[in-house]
Structure prediction request, 345 residues.
Amino acid sequence: MIRFDGILFNERNSRLIMAELTRHDPAHSQLSHCQVARRVSRFSFMSALAKLNGLAFFPRVAEYCEGSLHAACDTRVMTRERFVPLCCDGHGTLIVAIVNPWSLQPQAHLATRFPQFEIVRIVTLASEISRAIVSGAVRRGASVWRGEFPS
Amino acid sequence: MHAAAPPLSGGSCAQVLSNGHIEELIETCIEQTAEALVQTHSASRSDVRHAIDAVRLAHAQGQPSDLMSTIAGLHGAAEPDLAKAVEVLAARLASTLNPSPQLIPFAGRLIAPTAFYASFERLHKLARVLLAPVIFAEDTGSIGVASANPIAANLLAEKIQELVSRRFDIRPFLTIARLDYESWTLLTHRHFEL
Prediction:
């Protein structure tokens, strides 16, 4: 099973990811699951997750996180589940950055806080989620302590 | 990283995306957009015919033009209503694609991938005539394209995939996003000096 950026993907999803990565670059067919984290770029890996789930991938999102949306969410849950609400499109849609498209937790958490919005997920890097959470919290003036925020 | 392979010469690149190919792709974009506009009941065939004439004339004069926004203008929408009319039409056109490109408000704020454009000059020319900027290019393995017209973005994405695959022997991942009218005009000005 593939482990990437601290996320362990199950056997089925690992096979799907390997097939997508091999379509992207035939040389990846030689990789074992445990080699993926070291040999595949984060951009390619996260793009593969996005494609498998019919989602868009964006490599930079942290700068575009609206503080008011961030404030309505539980920082611990966002950190644990690796997601962050980014912005509204003005037509009732909330754009949410996620890392693991197979996790249902972000939608469940956001649906209770933003019932008026249709949630649209986009995939990004785990590091972008961390940056967005920390910068959002700092903008709000929250104290940063290790138990709550990503390192 | 996949950027280590030597670039093709300008001549080789021109072979895969000649001026003739670019003109064909403009026509393909016009035809597919026209079909989608009619299919989604966004415009009558008569309106589409008039708009196509205007778009072809603009292209012939060296001024890139988009059929969807031309239709919005023909329907009498003026600024700032034009922005709303374009977004409504764009959402309808997006519904004809699978997966349907989403409107991403911040896509217009990403930094232009100048190195990618420098490396693929013909793709920059194609992006210019399709009015579909490349919004990011990460080590050529993951590339993002956006436009107000999702069909134009989709066509550019297909061509990028083809040309990058030929040069680097990898099939890049393509993200396609919709831009709001304001971001679209801003990005086309920034990327293509229009």
Observations:
- The interface with chain B takes residues 23-26, 41, 43-44, 46-48, 50-51, 54-61, 63-64, 86-91, 93, 95, 120, 122 of chain A (CB under 8 Å).
- The longest strand of chain A covers residues 83-88.
